[in-house]
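Standup notes, protein team

Yesterday: finished cleaning the Brachypodium distachyon set.
Today: Sulfite exporter TauE/SafE family protein structure.
Blockers: none.

Input for Sulfite exporter TauE/SafE family protein:
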Amino acid sequence: MGRQWHAVAALCISCTVMAAAVGADRGRLFASTAAAPEPEDVSFLRKVASYMWQKDGTTYHHVWPPMKFGWKIVLGSFFGFIGGAFGSIGGVGGGGIFVPMLTLIIGFDPKSAAAMSKCMIMGAAVSTVYCNLKLKHPTLDMPVIDYDLVLLIQPMLMLGVSIGVICNVIFPNWLVTVLLIILFLVTSTKAFLKGVETWKKETIIIKEAEKRSEQISEETEYTPLPTGPDSPAETITPSDEAVSIWKNVHWKEFGLLVFVWVAFLALQVTKNYIATCSTWYWVLNLLQIPVSVGVAMYEAVGLLQGKRVISSKANDQTSLKVHQLLLYCFLGLMAGVVAGLLGVGGGSIMGPLFLELGVPPQVSSATATFAMMFSSSMSVVEYFLLNRFPVPYALFFTVLAFFAAIVGQRVVRKLIGLLGRASLIVFILSMMIFVSAFSLGGVGISNMIHKITRHEYMGFENICKYDA
C-alpha cells in the first residue's frame, strides 16, 4: 500500500492516544478537585480536559422537521436522487451528498442526518446489488462481485460500524469534521491518481485494438473465411451480460456473510433490552469481536494456503502476505468506523483500497457496494434502536435512493459500452469523495462556528446518559 494509507493509520492511532491522554488527565483533574481547590496557574491541558469532557456535559437534542410537501422536499429529493445515482456508480454510497442535503435543505440536526443518510445508502446499495448479482467479471469467468475479497473485508467492516455508531454518540462534531476532511482528501487524491493511470492504460489498449482491427480488415479482403472441422473455435470473452443469479452467486461465501449479519443483528436487538453501560451491555458489544474476527481469519487462512484467491486485473491473481491481510482487515475496520461515525457508506476507503489491489473498476464498485449493503443495513437497525431518525422520512428517502441507483447503474453501463472506458467509475468515485470532503467538512465547520458563538459545550458526550 502507498504512504497515504500508512498516514491514515498513523492519524487514527494518534487520535486514540490523544483521547486517552485527555481522559487520563481528566481523571486526575476530578480527583485533585475533590481533594483541594486548584491554584490559579492550572495547566492548559487540564483546562482543555475540563472543558472537552465534563462529567455530565451534554447538549445534544435531535431536530426532526415535520414532513410536509414543499420546496424543501422537492429540492432535497433532487439532490438525493443525484447522490444516489452517482454514489451507486462509484461504490461510495452517496453519504457526502445525503448528509449536507438533509442538514442544510431538509433541516435535520447533523447526527440525525447521518442516521438518515444510512437509510438512503442502504436503499441504493440493495438495488445496485440486485443488478450486480446477475453480471459477470469484465475479463474473467467469475461474478462481477469478488466474494473472497468481500468475505475478508465485510466482517471487520461490520465490527467497525458498531464502533462507529457508538463514536457518533460520543464524539464532538469538531473532531468528526477534522478526521473527515483529512481522510477524504487523502483517499480522493489516491483514487484520482488511480483513475488517471487507468485512463492511460485504456488509451493504449484502444489504440492497439484499432490497429489490430485495421490489419484484420485488410487481411480479410484476400483471405477466405476458415471452414471445416479443423477451423479454430471462436473465442468467447466474458461480458457484462446478465446470467442466472443461481449460477452466478457463490452461495457458501454469501451464507457466511449472512451469518455475520444475523449474528450482529441478534446482538444489537438483545442489547436494546439491556441498560446502557451495564455489564451485559459491554459483554454483548465484545461478543461481536469473535464473530467478525473468526470469519475474517477463516478467509485469510484460506488465502494464505492458496485455497482461495482474490482476482486482480487482467488474468493475474494477487498473492497476499500476512502483513497485507492484517492491514486490509484493519482498513476494513476503519472503513466501518467511518461509515458508522459519519453516516457515509464506507466506500470512501474500500473503493481506493480495492483499486490498489488491482481490482477492475467495475468489480471494485460492485464489491464495495455489496459490502456496504450489509454494513448500512446494520447501521440502520442500530440507529433505529437508538431512535436516531423519523421513520416516515427514512422510508421516503430510502425508496428515492433505491430507484436513483437503478438509473445510475443503467446509465454508466451504457457509457462504458460506448466509450470503452471503465475508468469513468474511478473518476466518479474520486469526485464523490472529494465533494464529500468539502460538503461534510463545510457543514461541520458551520456547526462549530455556531456553537462557538453561542458558547455551547463542544466536548465528548456521555453515552451512558444519552437520551434521544
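Follow-up from PR in the comments: The radius of gyration is 25 Å.
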